[in-house]
Specification:
heterodimer; A: alpha/beta; Rossmann fold; Alpha-Beta Plaits; 4-stranded antiparallel sheet; 14 strands; 40% helix; B: two-stranded antiparallel sheet
């Protein structure tokens, strides 16, 4: 016993960044179809981490494996220090989940849905009511608690699902396309609520998305394509990892202007759109570049590198914009529920 | 202590317990919560209560009254009265299967996922579902007892208690059967097919509308293979017991079933039903545990 106790006690006085998720060479195939192919990444505790990729890239499969809903066919993954393959229940107690499709019982009230969840997650009776009040307040649904979920809008239902995911005070929150099919205002509201929760609860958040703007909320992004990680880093790192921002110029005499710019040390090329200058700081450089040309400038445009460019760079294609498709999918789900 | 020590030494962050599904008390609370949910949903869908009543009532009125004159009256006992226990059984069967099939709805509407990712044993959810469906089916079946005066059926306290007990056993068996089928079905359309090809024949073969005495041998075999036969017979027996049936009526409408000339007692019938109940529960738990 003495030996065990000594070895079991964690090291003291040392600051360590705890790993919330560790994925190592993860693989999942359905017959010949490989959904996840040799995936490795890790997420630190307290981090907001995005899996960005088009539909069918393997995001949902990855999230399903991590929350123990699906098994893997190779590799290893731990969540909150537990192995997804051998300790699913330990993980389930510590994570909150918000799925792509609605998973509420619409014939129950908001309160009843939350209560059922509280019991299923073994929350002690004395804290149930208090936690339910708390999460309803977090998502601003206190006054709708006794209404049937069937009467909720898509945005309200989604917020209730987030509240439910937070009910049992999880260490990690998994969100699979949390704002798909929602209008921009609701989307913004949901993220405000989520980030506030994360700050208050020191929550680790992993979410999937195919929206660039949404991914930019994350501390770090993994771009996934064809079941593999194409790139990983902070939004800033990803942007600076590919070519810098550009200034486009058109002048009365492009050839002369190009010579002048190159003489001044600019990395400038002549393209169909005009003269292209690559620079890390277009705001500061644009004035000096125009000065170097010495007159005759007719058009100036600054292009800042966006995540779209990053995605295009690493995957060789534009992310598909499946907004309309996603809308109709959710729409169908809601229509069927009536 | 051995394995726990090993694990703790290997990885200090991992709790000694290998996995955490909660205590037995926790599992029981989960089952109770699932049970409660079924009742809440039942209370809120008036159409379900109504359809559960209308179909057996229709059978009783259309066939009971329709065929009554054709079959004739034997010492004050008629075909309507003969059909009554079967109609109670029918009400229990259809309600039980309908409640169990909510698993397929849960899958379609996503709620099943919420239950499947919870840190609970799947069997706790299955027990809750079975208890919920069975409660509803028993209630619905016993509601049919209110029709007794309408067709001049006499009810004693003993008969009512026995009917409730048999209906409850039957409800558990059929809800378990429904949960098992439901755990295997992906879409609600599949359920309608199961209803058509399995449930209606099973109801008819159980002697819902005719005595199982003098049938052609092929039909006799089929009726004896039908699990429902063994629950309709005791149900009929306890209700007939409360009537003052003349010998002619008893001969015409025997409640008990015979196998190779051997008359089965109620307790034998109920033993058969109990066997199927256990079998269906095992199948339901197994079917549901494999659901992904």
């Amino acid at each position: 016993m003495g030996v065990m106790a000594r070895e079991a006690s964690p090291p003291r006085g040392r600051v360590t960044v705890r790993t919330a998720i560790e994925v190592s060479r993860l693989r999942k195939s359905y017959g010949d179809v490989v959904a996840v192919d040799d995936l490795s990444f890790s997420v630190a505790a307290g981090e907001v981490f995005a899996l960005l990729g088009p539909n069918g890239a393997g995001k949902s499969t990855t999230i399903n494996i991590l929350c123990t809903l699906a098994g893997s066919t190779g590799g290893r993954a731990t969540v909150a220090g537990f192995d997804v393959a051998t300790q699913p229940h330990a993980i389930r107690r510590r994570i909150g989940l918000v799925f792509q499709q609605p998973t509420l019982d619409e014939q129950l009230t908001a309160q009843e849905n939350l209560h059922l969840h509280a019991v299923m997650y073994h929350m002690p009776r004395r804290i149930r009511a208090q936690r339910i009040d708390h999460v309803l307040e977090l998502v601003g649904l206190e006054d709708r608690r006794n209404d049937l979920v069937a009467t909720f809008s898509g945005g309200m239902a989604r917020r209730l699902e987030i509240a439910r995911g937070m009910l049992h005070s999880p260490e990690l929150l998994f969100l699979d396309e949390p704002t798909v099919g929602l209008d921009p205002q609701t989307r913004t509201l949901i993220w405000q609520e989520l980030l506030a929760m994360r700050a208050a609860a020191n929550l680790t958040v992993l979410f999937t998305t195919h929206h660039m703007h949404e991914a930019e909320i994350a501390d770090r992004i993994a771009i996934i394509d064809h079941g593999r990680i194409a790139a990983i880093g902070t939004p800033g790192e990803l942007k600076t990892s590919i070519t810098a921002d550009t200034i486009t110029l058109r002048t009365r005499n492009d050839a002369a202007a190009l010579d002048a710019l190159q003489a001044a040390g600019y990395h400038a090329t002549l393209g169909a759109a005009g003269i292209l200058i690559e620079t890390t700081n277009p705001d500061a450089e644009v004035g000096r570049a125009v000065e170097a040309i010495g007159g005759g400038v007719e058009f100036v445009q600054i292009h800042r590198c966006s995540l779209d460019d990053v995605f295009l760079h690493y995957t060789g294609r534009q992310i598909r914009e499946p907004a309309a498709e996603a809308h109709s999918e959710i729409g169908r789900a809601w229509v069927r529920r009536r | 202590m051995g394995p726990a020590t090993l694990m703790t030494t290997m990885n200090p962050t991992v709790a000694p317990m290998a996995d955490e599904v909660g205590t037995y008390g926790d599992q029981l609370r989960v089952a109770a919560a699932v049970w409660h949910r079924e009742l809440l949903r039942y209370r809120r869908t008036k159409t379900r209560i109504l359809t559960g009543l209308v179909q057996p009532l229709l059978f009783l009125l259309v066939f009971g009254f329709g065929l009554n004159d054709l079959i004739g009256i034997n010492g004050g006992f008629d075909f309507k009265k003969f059909m009554f226990p079967g109609v109670i059984g029918m009400s229990v069967v259809s309600t039980a299967i309908f409640s169990a099939i909510s698993i397929v709805w849960d899958r379609e509407f996503g709620f099943l996922r919420e239950m499947l990712v919870a840190p609970v044993q799947r069997s706790a959810i299955v027990w809750g579902k079975i208890a919920g469906g069975a409660t509803i089916a028993t209630l619905q079946g016993c509601l049919m007892l209110a029709l007794a005066p309408l067709i001049d059926i006499r009810l004693t306290v003993v008969a009512v208690v026995e009917v409730v007990a048999i209906a409850a056993l039957m409800a558990v068996a059929l809800t378990a059967f429904g949960v098992f089928v439901g755990s295997r079905l992906r879409r609600i359309e599949g359920f309608q097919i199961v209803m058509q090809v399995a449930l209606l024949p099973m109801l008819f073969l159980a002697g819902l509308m005719f005595p199982l005495g003098n049938l052609p041998s092929w039909l006799t075999v089929l009726t004896r293979l039908d699990p429902l036969t063994y629950v309709i017979a005791p149900l009929r027996d306890v209700i007939f017991d409360a009537q003052h049936m003349p010998p002619a009526a008893i001969a015409r409408f025997p409640a008990a079933i015979t196998i190779f000339g051997h008359r089965l007692s109620n307790s034998t019938d109920l033993a058969v039903v109990s066997f199927f109940t256990v079998l269906f529960i095992v199948l339901a738990v197994r079917g549901f545990s494999r659901t992904e």
